[in-house]
Design goal:
By secondary structure, the chain is an all-alpha fold.
């Protein structure tokens, strides 16, 4: 199983906040659109039982500079990166 109950809860939260983060921070942090697109690809692959997420997680690490949170963003933006980083680490350790 790729996602546990806690990660499932976190993904649901990301689904709610991602549009807000994109709207608020997108003009100054265009990378959030790529993060969002990659996150959607990950969810799609998980939903169809594809557990090879190496390329998507590598792309997230590159886009986010290994999940380095920009200094001028809100806690919600930071939460997006932290949840994705947590998922990445759990994927690596499976």
């Amino acid at each position: 199983m790729l996602i546990n109950k806690n990660m499932e809860k976190n993904f649901k939260e990301l689904d709610m906040v991602m549009p807000i983060v994109k709207r608020v921070h997108g003009p100054h942090h265009g990378e959030i659109f790529e993060v969002s697109d990659t996150y959607e690809t990950i969810k799609e692959k998980i939903s169809r039982g594809d557990d090879n997420l190496d390329d998507e997680l590598k792309k997230l690490r590159e886009i986010t500079d290994n999940y380095k949170v920009p200094g001028d963003v809100c806690e919600t933006y930071e939460k997006v990166y932290k949840v994705l980083e947590e998922f990445d680490k759990s994927y690596e350790n499976r």
